[in-house]
Amino acid sequence: MKLIKGFRDIFPYSDNVIEDSVLWNFIEKSISSKLENYNFEKIITPIIENKTTFNTGIGNDTDIISKEMYEFLLYKDSQVTNDIIYCLRPEGTASTVRSYLENSLFKRRKINKLYYMGPMFRYERSQKGRYRQFYQVGAEILGSKDIFYEFELISLGVDLIKETGIDDFVVEINSIGDINSLNKLSEEVRNFTNKNKEKIQDSDFEIINKNPLRFLDKAIHKYNFEDIPKSSDFISSDSKLRFDEIINLLDKNNIKFNINHQLVRGLDYYNDLVFEIKSDSLGAQDTILAGGRYDKLVSKFGGPETFCVGFAAGIERLILLSSSDIRKKAYERIDFYVAYQKPDFKEFANEVCSRLRKIGFNVLIEYEFKNFVKQIKSADKMNSKMLITIGEEEMNAKSIKIKDMSSGKEDIIKNKNIEKDIKNISNNEK
To answer: Domains of the chain (ranges plus CATH)?
Structure first.
């Protein structure tokens, strides 16, 4: 038996950081905490969706739909039927919008701030930081066109990056304008590529014919077309005003950014603001987090016109770039290691563990008895914050000895006062 290419196991104490479930769990908790800090609420959608959800949301002409989708062949009377096609979800925004409409969330609240976290699936070339089953966290604000929500998302994105200890990153922003602006830009890109068709590969003309805007990134990085039309030349006065306001907010709040007029994003549903947070440490696949405004997506699904803005980030990439300090913190999850000198002391040691767990502490005890000194060494190896020892003296005195593993400070606590005194010690340490 062998693991399928593009997929991987996630387990504790892996030598590979993106396969280490302890670090993974720590990062996910940190991200969730930060999102909830901004008052986003979690939405959980199925891994399997109707393919039409993504046909409508992403666009039939995208590589995601035409080349990368994991689809299910459905059989009826031993024959393949195309009546309904299910697929593994390739991204989270379309699923969120589908749920938003199907469950009439817009009737419950005018503005919905939702986040999701989970696996996505795309059949694409596996490489560093990119897998066929990959994990995303996304944040969506549905129901408002207020500029401050766009600023909030960029600010949140920066905070999420910093939360994982990443400091080598850059924020890039652009305005691609409203629908009319995008149509004008598309037409000019077509005219430009037709004039330069002898320099462009046939395979890229397939992209241009489907959606010329997707060619803009290649125009710079692959062909070095410096004179390719820019979105800034075609945006409306309203779009420019909105973009200027965002720039002003970012400046006032000391969020550093670069304006990249070639930035358009790869999906069809964006308009006006688009943004990416990148890191050179990832190599060619340098985007950690990306998003923008998508005001026409809800109506494409048959819903009311709804102003929306959101982003998605790759969890694997956040983990890959996480700092050594964050990785160390991930393994400092054990509050107390309980060591007992003799097998006869196990019952009392277990009682201590149960009492500490009931008041919210993470406690480790090894029931298969080993040498007292080895237990104490294990506490250090497992990065336990505190060590509780139960020896002869403690058993006779009906007490426990507690040691702070960083400072070396020790205290003796009577059995009857365990909960109260340990809470006090823990609060003092904080």
So the answer is: 17-178+235-327 (3.30.930.10), 334-429 (3.40.50.800)
